[in-house]
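Hi L.,

As promised, V-type proton ATPase subunit H:
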Amino acid sequence: MNMYTFSNPYLEELAANLRARPIPWEGYQRAGLISEVDLKKIKAVDGNNRGRRLQVVQEDGIGYAELTLGLMQKTKRIDIQQYVLVLAGDLISEVDGWVNVLLSLQENNSDLPYSPLLKLLFQDVWLAYLCRHLKSDDESVTLLAAKVLAFVLSADPNPPIDVMRSFLEYAANLNASRDTVHQDLAVQAYSGVLKSDEVRLLFWEIEKCPTNLIVALKKNNGGVQLQYNILLVIWLLSFQPSLAREVNKKYDVVLLLSDILKSAIKEKITRVALAIFRNLIKNAPEENLLAMLVARVLDLTNNLAKRKWSDTEIIEDLQFINEELTCNFEQLTTFDEYTSEVESGHLSWTPPHRNMDFWGQNAVRFAEYDNSLLKQLTNLLKSSNDALVLAVAAHDLGQYLKYVPDGRSVLQNLGAKERIMELMGHPDSDVRYEALSAVQVFMTHAWQE
């Protein structure tokens, strides 16, 4: 059987209805829509005798590959398109190795003497047939074609990059749909094709692919199964080191996964979320360990470790994550923790912000790396809509200036002073208070316009 599995109740019901619908094949043959050979092949596999169908297709796999793909190419009738797409999906799922028969049409072989010429003239012509259906006006044809194409691409050890790009872009648009059936189809398709670093990097390069995926995870409108399928995709991506380095910086997945783990009821959700954490630590420790410590993942995993788990992978991953975080926690300085919090963009009243010793010891370090921390705090003041983030950022810039008076020109050039003065009129009382306090520090040091 094909190793890639696909389960979508809507498509399964649709396929069942289409299988039961009678099609006037003899009339289509008389009208010239299909050939006599096509008719014989269809009649040989039509009906509910699965054993008979398996035997027929195993004996003539190439013939049925040519039949299904040929009809996809030449027919304009939606009922025939639907039929052959359902048939192709059934044969891929039921007939061991038939998807490889489809792939073999790319090669020069004795069964298809014209295949070398076809390969030169129409590279991956059979995949092009399927891609053509992805633009069909009939949704059932579109979705069925997407499913078949996902199966074929998942089985191809070297999928054509142009076809893969088109398919990933299509799936990203499907993932953005409000319809959870569409989202589920897209996410399961991703799970099938994201097997190599090349495809994972291509997925990441098409920005709407990861963006729409994370948006769907945050909304979580599709229940536990869709959430699980999305997490599986993130897990696949986390095997690629460069993506493991970037994913939290771009999408705050550490906090997102932490929230999911806190509320997870099903063990499978816990298992895959922890597996993602494990990969992020193994493949990009410098980028993710600090973020996990700031997000209190160590406290979370310590609590999870106290529960009884039937899944040994959960136990092993918890042990690995706890050991790594504990080791790094012992080496973590307060300034490291503060820096990671600012970089995450999720400011809160953690201990360093109101600790005078922290500011006395570390304020001068805010100018390191071309004023990186000052720039990040100023950007948060300008871009965030979170009152807590605004209050903490205004407070911290005021504290910095209190201990480093010479830094006022840097803050002024960054636009921090102007923005803090604007925040004195913010509707939130804490933001107004911290902004006013910071302005008072500016005035104390005679900050000139």
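The chain has four domains: 1-156, 157-224, 238-332, 341-444.

Thanks again for sending the construct details.

K.
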